[in-house]
Amino acid sequence: MRRNRTAAIALAVGAGMGLVSCGEAATSPGPTRSATAESAPSLSVTVPPSSPAPASAPPTTPEGEIDKLAATNGWVVDALYPSVSAFVRDMCESLPISAIDGESRPQWLAGHLKGDGQAVLKEGIPKLCPTWTKTLEAAVSGDYEVWLSNGDYEVSSEQQPGGKSVKPGTYRIKGDLENCYWERLTRSGEIIDNNFASAAREITVTVRASDGLFRSEGCEGVWKPVR
Q: pLDDT at position 95, please?
């Protein structure tokens, strides 16, 4: 009876040890894998900064070229004008109607060649109003037709640009002439010839090389050379 009981106890102890051993095997954790180790390596890409687009240069205009030349050469015009190119533009716009003031166009333009005017207009007119280039050339050369209005004109064989001078020759005035007076004088002021027309449609006068002065008063119109 004791023998059987001892065997039963031994069997129970052996079974308990087996259960503990099996439990340890079942609950023992296995080796863990690092998620960091398995993640793919990251790539670093450096993007160079973009260069700003170059600023476009302002468009070049004829007026801008004229003003740039004026600044480089130190040209100045009447302070009435805000810029040198404005002076040239005014000349271009005035040339078509310049003859109504009693002067031929080259004669009128010659009056604006003083100071830096000649250099400015020689550069500016071909750029802003090239159709008047020939007129400018005549004004610069002094070889142009002179029209005479009322006033005193010194007789001279050489044309004086912009001045009150008249070349020897024959001149004629046309229109409704009333109370028109003219005279030719010597250099000392003595009258050589004169005439007063109370009413006329046409008057012709020949100015001699020996004359000193030609004078016109009250004559509506202009005296033009007779070709």
A: 94
